[in-house]
Each structure stands twice: as structure tokens, then as C-alpha cells.
């Protein structure tokens, strides 16, 4: 199964990818998580990516394409994987198609998470992320049991610097300009399904399972 979760930042792709990955044992490939790990590790890739992420713009294609190509070639990806946050524009989609075709593979599903900008801004401004395991919480909608501490691993929760309102607005405008063209791209290939991402996570999971049946 090669599955792409497509949708704006904050639409719940990461939450659903994590659930699906633990249920079905498909690796979850998130370029955002990979880049944040590279920043924490202080690697060359991390140093290059940081200023783009802090401004809410896209990291250069060559950087993310190399990251994803390396990750896709790992043994745990041989039976498929879930892509979250990649591809983010048409040239990344074309690079992905080339990589898959060269391995005689193809995308099975592209699922579009549909949600309004207003709902996204509310979600992202209250979002808190575990600094260690990336589990996500929401101050009102899904708080941790102990404020500021991850239920899963006990590490501190942080607000991602790019979840601040001005950066969120920039990320949404980048999504509209760069990523939305992928909707028509995958619809034309007959791969696209869409789900209502304004619903609570359990309901979104059900919609996703129905699409994948
Ligand atoms: P995410 O966690 O997917 O919301 O990504 C956070 C940030 O990482 C984005 O705002 C971009 O700066 C960068 N990023 C993640 N994935 C990509 C990608 N496929 N192409 C370019 N930049 C990316």
C-alpha cells in the first residue's frame, strides 16, 4: 500500500498517519518530522531547512526529495508506506512518480483532507507537540492529562515555532499556491478521494478506513 495524505497544515494528516501506521504496520513517512529531527540533530540538512521552516515556506525540493528517497529505500518500506507532507508541489510529485516507476511501484490512494482555513488557524494555534515522540495535543480539544507533559512518554510539550499565527497564515498561503495544484494532478490520474477533516479524529479514521477498503 502506497498512500499519500494530502491536505493543509493542521488538517490532521499526522494524527491519522500515526494511527494507521500503528494499526496496519505501514511506516509513516513525514518530511516535516524528518526535517525537525535533522534540526534537533544539528545536521547539515537541518541547518539548511531551519530558516525555511521558521518562515513557513517550503524547503528546497532537492533536500526533501533526497530525504524521502533515502527513507523509501529502507527495508521496512518494501511493502508500502504512508506519505504525510510529501509531495508538496508538482515537481516533488513528478520526482516521486519517477522513483516509484523505477521500482515498478505505483501510488494506491491519495486522500485529500478537506477543512476551512478558519478551522485550521484555531487548531494550529492551540496545538502542542511532544518534543520527543511528536504526539500531538490541543489545549482545548485534546489536552494532555498533565498540562505541558506528554501522556505517552512524559517529555515536555512545545508549541512548534511555525504554529504561531503569522507563520500559520504564511503556511496556508504556500499550501494554496504550491500544494493545491496537486489536487487536480491526482484527480486527473484517478487516484484522489476526499474526506471531511473537520470531524473529530475517530470519525476521520472511519472515513479513511472506508476509502481504503
Ligand atoms: P509539516 O510538519 O508537514 O507541516 O512541515 C513543516 C514544515 O517543513 C513546512 O512548513 C515546510 O517548511 C517543511 N516541509 C515539510 N515537508 C516538506 C516538503 N515536502 N517540501 C518542502 N518543505 C517541506
Descriptive report:
The structure is a single chain. By secondary structure, this protein is α/β, with parallel strands linked by helices. The chain is built from nine helices and eight strands. The chain has helices at 13-24, 31-41, 44-55, 61-72, 90-102, 117-125, 165-179, 181-188, 201-212; strands at 2-6, 28-30, 81-84, 109-114, 127-130, 136-138, 157-158, 192-196. A five-stranded parallel beta sheet has the order 2-3-1-4-8, with helices on both faces. Strand 5 (127-130) and strand 6 form a beta hairpin. The chain starts with a strand and ends with a helix. The mean pLDDT is 95. The protein binds adenosine monophosphate. Adenosine monophosphate (AMP) binds at residues 9, 31-32, 35, 52-53, 56-59, 64, 85-86, 88, 92, 162, 171.
Task: Give the helix tally.
Answer: 9
How many β-strands, per DSSP? Answer: 8
Give the class from helix and strand content and strand pairing.
alpha/beta
Poorly predicted sequence stretches spanning 5 or more consecutive residues: none
The end-to-end span amounts to: 12 Å
Q: Largest sheet, order of strands side by side?
A: 2-3-1-4-8
Present as ligands are:
adenosine monophosphate
Shape: globular
Helix/strand order, N-terminal first: EHEHHHEHEHEEEHHEH
Mean pLDDT: 95
Q: Helix and strand layout, with pairings?
A:
Layout: E1 2-6, H1 13-24, E2 28-30, H2 31-41, H3 44-55, H4 61-72, E3 81-84, H5 90-102, E4 109-114, H6 117-125, E5 127-130, E6 136-138, E7 157-158, H7 165-179, H8 181-188, E8 192-196, H9 201-212
Helix pairs in contact: 1-9, 2-3, 4-5, 6-7
Amino acid at each position: 500500500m502506497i498512500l499519500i495524505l494530502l491536505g493543509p497544515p493542521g488538517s490532521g494528516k499526522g494524527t491519522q498517519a500515526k494511527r494507521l501506521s500503528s494499526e496496519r504496520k505501514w511506516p509513516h513517512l513525514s518530511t516535516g518530522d524528518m526535517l525537525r529531527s535533522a534540526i534537533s540533530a544539528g545536521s547539515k540538512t537541518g541547518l539548511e531547512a531551519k530558516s525555511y521552516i521558521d518562515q513557513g515556506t517550503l524547503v528546497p525540493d532537492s533536500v526533501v526529495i533526497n530525504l524521502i528517497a533515502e527513507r523509501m529505500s529502507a527495508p521496512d518500506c518494501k511493502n508500502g508506506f504512508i506519505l504525510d507532507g510529501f509531495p508538496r508541489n508538482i515537481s516533488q510529485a513528478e520526482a516521486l512518480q519517477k522513483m516509484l516507476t523505477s521500482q515498478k511501484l505505483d501510488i494506491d490512494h491519495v486522500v485529500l483532507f478537506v477543512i476551512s482555513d478558519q478551522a485550521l488557524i484555531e487548531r494550529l494555534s492551540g496545538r502542542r507537540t511532544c518534543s520527543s515522540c511528536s504526539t500531538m495535543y490541543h489545549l482545548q480539544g485534546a489536552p494532555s492529562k498533565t498540562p505541558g507533559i506528554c501522556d505517552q512518554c512524559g517529555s515536555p510539550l512545545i508549541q512548534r515555532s511555525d504554529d504561531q499565527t503569522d507563520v500559520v497564515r504564511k503556511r496556508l498561503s504556500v499550501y494554496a499556491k504550491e500544494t493545491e495544484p496537486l489536487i487536480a494532478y491526482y484527480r486527473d490520474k484517478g487516484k484522489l478521494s476526499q474526506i471531511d477533516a473537520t470531524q473529530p479524529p475517530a470519525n476521520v479514521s472511519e472515513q479513511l478506513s472506508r476509502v481504503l477498503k
